[in-house]
Amino acid sequence: MKYAEILHRCFRCGYCKFTLDYENFNCPPYRKYRFDTFAPGGRMWLIRAWLDGEIENSERFQEILYSCATCGNCVEHCAFTFRENLVDIFIAAREEMVNGGRIPPPVRDYFKAISIHGNPYNLPAAQRSSWAADLPVQPYDGQEYLFYVGCVGSYDERGRKIAQAVSRNLIRAGVSFGILGEREPCDGNEVRVLGESGLFEYLAETNIALFRQLGVRKIITLDPHAFNAFRKEYPAFGGDFEVLHYSQVFSRLIESGNLKPGNFAARVTFHDACYLGRHGGEYEAPRNILRAIPGVELVEMRQNRANTLCCGGGGGNFFTDILGGEGDSPSRIRVRQALETGAEILVVSCPQCAKMLEDAIKAEGLDGRLTVADAGELLDASLRAH
């Protein structure tokens, strides 16, 4: 297994599972289960024991390994030089498990759906652009930007609304962009983090070949997960593109005066998406959008930016639900934290976060007290008012 030589270096000091101020736990599965086996340090020891033949692959071990949301909190807090490899170690262990042929059924079903249908929803590619049916969005044909929507934005009801709002904003600003529609393959980020490296390589090479064939040089992503894959993983396969998350584009357009938000009175708080923030290093672009909307009052949750609590959807959990959604799940804790700020709107910058947190609001019985809006949607609403 890759990184096997690093496993023994962890002696479970425990810093990896805390918040920056050490006042609470910030590792999503540990915060839920409170067993050290679910913390990064405990997981490291279990992986080592598994590789050494001291424990066997079991349903329990699979649950522990796949409950990791790959949020990167452990990377922020680990005191050792191998800290940057922590998430990759857990992904490598999943690869080893996949290669061994024994994985959780939801993970198996996810891979099967991607392999057969090209998306985790088991829906035909012909439906991939139906979200844009009522919008003047053109197929990509040499425009300046490819707007890569992704599986969640194409098929999930919540994601489709965000894709529509982002597109309307791009059109208003006069941005030259097109979409791939039914030709758009899955970006593969969750395939990779769930451990199917062979399938990810195939998806990456397929996407890169298509992008090159079409002459794509600049990409705007809806989903931070695609943003991560294109920026960090595709270059290893020869895919060098200029990749921007939509929030970065809108932040620049507002600064240049090409987008002028109208008044929208609301008290809001912002949830940092792990794959835009910790993995992507972008914390300010979504906040720049919110600060630019007259009438919006931004109040931060105590845990924000690199100290944020993951919604629990990362690491493939959005699709497999191995981490679950009970009362101590990270998404439900997060909406309670948002409610404490007095905000009426919890703003996100990721369609997966939007779905996770909306479901948590319903589970917490907070309908009518707190709503979820994507930053692109809030900007769209302000521009309509203007």
List keywords for this structure.
single chain; 386 residues; alpha/beta; Rossmann fold; 4-stranded parallel β-sheet; 17 helices; 8% strand; globular
Would you mind describing this structure in some detail?
β3 (218-221), α11 (224-233) and β4 form a beta-alpha-beta unit. The model has no long low-confidence stretch (mean pLDDT 97). The strands form 2 sheets. A 4-stranded parallel β-sheet has the order 2-1-3-4. It has 17 helices and 8 strands. The protein has helices spanning 28-33, 40-51, 59-66, 73-77, 86-100, 105-117, 150-155, 157-172, 189-193, 197-214, 224-233, 246-256, 284-292, 317-320, 330-340, 351-364, 375-385, and strands at 145-148, 177-178, 218-221, 242-245, 266-270, 296-298, 345-348, 371-374. By secondary structure, it is of the alpha/beta class. It folds into 3 domains: 4-103, no CATH class; 116-251, Rossmann fold (3-Layer(aba) Sandwich); 260-385, AF0625-like (Rossmann fold).
Poorly predicted regions: none
Share in helix:
40-55%
Task: Please report which band the strand proportion falls in: under 5%, 5-15%, 15-25%, 25-35%, 35-45% or over 45%.
Answer: 5-15%
- Determine the structural class based on helices, strands and strand pairing: alpha/beta
**How many strands, which pairing sense, and closed or not: the largest β-sheet?**
4 strands, parallel
Oligomer: single chain
Question: How many independent structural domains?
Answer: 3
Shape: globular
**CATH fold category name of the largest domain:** Rossmann fold
Please identify, by name, the CATH architecture of the largest domain. 3-Layer(aba) Sandwich
Number of helices: 17
Distance between the termini: 56 Å
The level-1 CATH class of the largest domain: Alpha Beta
Radius of gyration, taken over Cα atoms and rounded to an integer in Å: 20 Å
The whole-number mean of residue pLDDT values reads: 97
* Total strands: 8
Provide the succession of SSEs.
HHHHHHEHHEHHEHEHEHEHHEHEH
